[in-house]
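Recap for those who missed Tuesday's class. We walked through two folding examples back to back. For each one, the amino acid string is listed first and its predicted structure tokens come directly after. Nothing is annotated here on purpose, so try labeling regions yourself before you check the end of the notes.
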Amino acid sequence: MEAPVYIHIPFCVKKCLYCDFVSYKHNDDMVDRYVNALINEIKLRSGHKAKTVYIGGGTPTCIDRKYLKGILGTLHRNLDMAACSEITIEANPGTLDREKLETLVEMGVNRLSIGFQSWNEKELKRLGRIHGRDEFVANYVLAREAGFKNISVDLMFGIPGQEMEDWKETIMEVSALEPEHISCYSLRIEENTPFHRMAELGEIAEIDEAVDREMYHYAADYLSDRGYHRYEISNFARKGRECHHNLFYWENRPFLGIGAAAHSYENGKRFWNTPDLDEYCIMLERSIIPVKGSETIDLGTEIFETIFLGLRTSKGILFDDFYGRFGFDIREKHGSRIEKLREMGLVDVTISGFHLTPMGIDLSNTVFIEFITD
């Protein structure tokens, strides 16, 4: 199999108040056991051809650099990395130092994704982040000095209590640092998070939808004026600095997930590893790939997901690409729906394909729903 590889490191110094990802508080004994199990899983996947590698979490950089070196070394020794164009690792300010950054560069990591979220100190505390603004800037400078030439910064808007001027400051200050990539995510209060419990008690509330959209469009316009093109709804990049790994996801292509709770997609089947750390480690100590469940993706679902994911990108759906993949012209089946959405101002249609308009981005669920029915 030749496909992108995702590696999950499910540890954090502290879980943020809004986070519903599979992650656990850092524990030295469990980290040691987990990394050994993860290395065993990589070995069991020996020979896989990695097009990209993305190390996510959790906070991968919260573990000691000796573990990161061991994981990356095992990848290079066991997977076919000849065609691998990008190795990304996620990081949070407060978990980086010069030695760790230099080790990552030495081991071939060429893209750093820093979860910053806000320039505003009060907002960082409200989110439960472990760092402050100064720590982010210091870590960013260290990353440059260590040799990182491709840095992405994650930002968040729609934070409870956030004002428009706060968001403007975040966008202006972060873009002034000139990272190659900026992601702007709208906060959603998810179930089973401290934020959800706080919302139920009336302690916080989701921001007004109109303000949320104003924040989004301000960021899109401001970043566009400074040379960042929006290549996906939430992602902005300098030319050629798009996240190669995530582009495969948005094309709905096969991928391999390694680690607790990691998902994979291959030969029309989606499968996932157990999220339970003990179970994950026990199975790999016995050299058993820790798959917990799977589902078969029928053709109708694959088509819908391809449309849904493709429309998140600025490229949208290209008629020739769709025909080459599925063997029929999308206009034969969905022509009336595409025309309806065009008349509503939600998509633009060209000779080569169709994509979301700015209004379509705001009402993207309305667009996606059109393609659910047969």
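Example two. Treat it independently of the first, because the proteins are unrelated.
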Amino acid sequence: MNKTNTTSALTRVGDLVQLVSPTNKKFFIRLTPGMQFHTHRGVVSHDDLIGVPWGSEVYSHTGSRYLLLRPTLHDLLIETKRNTQIMYPKDIGYILLKMGIGEGQTVIEAGTGSGALTSAFAWYIGKEGKVISYDLRADIQNLARKNLQNLGLEDRVTLKVKDIGLGFDENDADALFLDLPNPFDYVEQVFNALKPGGNFGAILPTTNQVQKLLSVLGRHRFGFLEVCEILIRYYRPFADKLRPTDRMVAHTGYLVFARTMLADAFSAAGNSALPSDDDQHAFTVDE
């Protein structure tokens, strides 16, 4: 199949590109005229990568080859520099969908960490949206700021050093996520920061914490509660010997979701997000 080299199919100045070696070693660089990329496999001039079709083979001055690819968000998050445990892409993907993150939204998070989830939020809210990320420690946020700058997303994010126990500065957010060990202490502050029907999410490592959070959510007009964990199993991609890999990415945390409600009638009791038997039948296709 022939592929036409349209302008959009070519790399441009300022693009973030991924170079992949034959041993699957990955490097990320932002194309800047006159700059060079140095590795033990040789030097690659940025000028030689500008205006090149995505998916091309490119070479260092020693003849070592790389594949030139447009990085996905998954690629970038996996390589995020960290000083704390970052959230896994498997969890981030579900969070983005479940909380309806999209163009032009205002999203708040607390517990900035290394900025992996911050980056994902910023990626999806677009140029017209905004992310506000709270943390108690400025030194923690410094790494997140650098990671955001590397991705070109820093203009979409406001980093705030503040104790959220004193309340959030915003009161009309579309979504709010807590990556903290004690989210149950801030449910009232969350409710006040979200617009009616806004999406709330949290991640917790133990069932004890989840139970405590559910109990508090039920007393603060949150409805449509959901608790889940995301497991992912990879397979060896060989047609003649397809089988699971020896390890899988299993439990990394419990995800808790809820939505703000104006009616007091909504509570955790009798308002589970899990479908009833009748609901499940609605998705059954008759033979």
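Answers for example two:
The longest strand covers residues 194-204.
The CA atoms of residues 50 and 118 lie 29 Å apart.
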